Amino acid sequence: MINKIQVKICLGSSCFSRGNQELVNAVQRYIREKQLEDKVAFSGDHCFCECQSGPNIRIAGKIINNVSTETIVEILDQNLTDI
To answer: What pLDDT, in 10s, does the model give residues 9-62?
Structure first.
């Protein structure tokens, strides 16, 4: 069994009100288009307690702040290459 890379998006009210629904859709689309379903586990998570810097995403334990629909693909490319 392969260990999947954990990608978690903050679903706290502050991040969610700043557009996390669009980010959820973008991450799901990215995983599907890159055929990473067997390598990446994507889920929502409770507040990361970094509300002032949201929206936030956690990839393999690393929190990335101020994520937007304009930056999400680049962030995923940088963090999910060579998996």
So the answer is: 999 999 888 888 999 999 999 999 999 999 999 999 988 999 999 999 999 999
Provide DSSP, 36-72.
Answer: -TTTEEEEEES--S-GGG-S-EEETTEEE-S--TTTH
Q: Which residues of 19-50 are buried (b: 16+ CB within 10 A; e: fewer)?
A: ebeebbebbeebbeeeebeeebebeeeeebeb
Structural domain 5-80, CATH architecture: 3-Layer(aba) Sandwich (3.40)
